[in-house]
Amino acid sequence: MEKLIISVATTGSITSRQDTPYLPITPVEIADEVYRCWQAGAAIAHIHVRNADGERSMDLELFKETVSLIKQRCNIILNLTTSGSGEITEEQRLGPLELRPELASFDAGSMNFGPRVFINSPQFLEKLAAKMKQYHVKPEIEVFDGGMIYNALRLVEKGLIDPPLHFQFVLGVRGGLAATPRNLIFLVDSIPPGSIWSVVGIGKGQLPMALMSMAMGGHVRVGMEDNIYLAKGVLAKSNAEFVEKMVRFAREVGREVATPDDARKILGLT
Ligand code: ZN
Fold first, then answer.
1. Which end of the chain is less crowded, N or C, counting CB atoms within 10 A of the terminal residue's CB?
2. Rounded to a whole number, what is the largest CA-CA distance in the chain?
């Protein structure tokens, strides 16, 4: 089997310091945490930033500072978020692409997302795909529900997204598909041959989905954006603990862990 790409999502936009005191929030804290995760075996860091109050933000200066601090210390692949809802505008969501990360998240459809509505209109998805193509940023196609795969494939037909496609299945969000083996198998069966895929299980879905993925030849994402517990009732003190756990399981099931440069080859990043 292919080497295992471990992606880490250290912060996200929803997890709070009330949920866990260990959440990295400032650019320095996020960069320190990404560095620890890289040392532990993560190949990709998925980045969100927070304002001084710890609230979600799409402030480009915060992204710039965070990216620069990480790049000074390691060669991990950066995947900047383009997500946002409510008061965050479409233009703000496109902002991080100007930093030309190797990857950026591409939320491939609209949905209920916990108490919110997460809007990704067909027009916005075209605009997002076109800008990613212009800036040579590979979309990480985030799929929360089956129909989102087909939204992405329509953009491939239009020439706005180029294969090989890289999917991130996000299972267990309230409003999306549940984190079950059947749902994961259905999604993997629905993507074009030659695609690369990874899975996020939210909360208690994180470990079972990661283990399924390792066995099926997929890749994994872990981190406090998706889950804060290392075991039942035990908060992770660092995102690196999740990465270390994935590395241990990967060894046990005979999957070598991909370095960032291995992951660049697998994902077709140049
Ligand atoms: Zn995210």
1. C
2. 47
Query: Could you tell me which residues come within 8 angstroms of residue 234 by beta carbon, excluding any fewer than 6 positions away?
Result: none
pTM score, two decimals?
A: 0.98
CA atoms within 13 A on the CB side of 231: 1
Which residues surround the ion ligand 1 when the cut-off is CB under 5 Å? 81
What's the gap in Å between 1 CA and the centre of ligand 1?
27
How many angstroms is it from 12 CA to the middle of ligand 1?
Answer: 5
| Whether CATH 3.20.20.70 fits 6-267 | yes
C-alpha 105 – ligand 1 centre gap (Å): 7
Ligand 1 centre from 186 Cα, in Å?
Answer: 23
Q: How many A from CA of 83 to the centre of ligand 1?
A: 7
Q: How far is the CA of 214 from the centre of ligand 1 (A)?
A: 21
Domain boundaries, the chain: 6-267
How many angstroms does the Cα of residue 13 sit away from the middle of ligand 1? 7
Q: Is 13 exposed, middle or buried (0-12, 13-18, 19+ CB in 10 A)?
A: middle
From first to last of the 270 residues of the chain, give the pLDDT tens digit.
Answer: 899 999 999 999 999 999 999 999 999 999 999 999 999 999 999 999 999 999 999 999 999 999 999 999 999 999 999 999 888 999 999 999 999 999 999 999 999 999 999 999 999 999 999 999 999 999 999 999 999 999 999 999 999 999 999 999 999 999 999 999 999 999 999 999 999 999 999 999 999 999 999 999 999 999 999 999 999 999 999 999 999 999 999 999 999 999 999 999 999 997
